[in-house]
Fold this protein.
Amino acid sequence: MRILVAGGAGYIGSHTIVELYTKGHTVVCVDNLYNAKLSAIKNVEKIVKKQIPFYKVDCCDKKKLETVFKKEKFDAVIMFQGYKAVGESVKIPIKYYRNNLDSALTIIELMDKYNVHNIMFSSSATVYGKNAKSPIKETDDALRLNDITNPYGETKAMIEKILMDKAAADSKFKAVILRYFNPVGAHESALIGEDPNGIPNNLMPYIAKVATGKLPYLNVYGNDYKTKDGTGVRDYIHVVDLAKGHVAALKCYKSKKQNLFVYNLGTGNGTSVLDLVKAYEKANKLKVKYKIVGRRAGDVDKLYCKPTKANKELGWMAKLDIESMCESSYNFENKK
Ligand code: UFG
């Protein structure tokens, strides 16, 4: 297939483009480079040994995005574009709602106009809300705005709802919603990886900075959770496995039976903060200094999924282990 990848220069988008090419698909990439660098696309080109058509376009800018729809032909759109920092979204919610909803609506309207019917959306486990009981299944209650703890997560739930309403109204429109757990790690080439601006909010990129001496120590947010060692438990998934999940999900577009698909993409394994620190030390033969500090607002004790639906229906399963997540994270951070 030929696929328009919106936000393709970002962390998950860039890894997905690599896996799409590996399986013989081609891509047109649009990105406004707000939180990504063109060098990521250049590095993807080195990995796949192909030139990738790239447009520096903000997906909220309908006129500019329409020039891409006019010029290029594609069979599907994957939406990775959007702001994604949980804490920031609490501080500047209107910017999050405007950008995330506007870009999604603009893409869907243009798809209608140019007869593109297949869409895939980067959603998040955050749509299950703070009361979800792990392991989380797709049939568990989701999209309850009162349970979602931040505007970023609310935009994910709202866009899911928009896609569900559109799919109900238009049988030609085929929507695949992928709910990611905690993507970490980097491509084995160390050419692409997670490269947040400033001090990282997320655990793995923070550990990578400590491991490479760029930050003095890790703050472990709380050791009094109801978990085996008291620290938060999450479902870390290697970004390359996650990217492969998108490629596997393209088969949904062949379905004649349904036009809306929802999948959890995770490993199903829960790993604590201290487990991850130990795994990082072991995989890279180094020490990661840390201090136990107070809990971070909005965090829950455990969040991991039951990935069996994607296993059965997509024939996809996360294969890479924590060691390879830690190793690739370090290699990428070291090479930067
Ligand atoms: N943590 C620390 N120290 C840090 C950063 C994180 O101890 O410096 C802990 C957190 O308290 C938590 C765990 O590490 O227990 C994971 O935290 P992350 O910030 O890496 O990830 P979250 O699970 O909080 O959030 C991620 C994504 C969100 C998404 C959510 C879905 O960042 O986009 O998963 O569940 F919404």
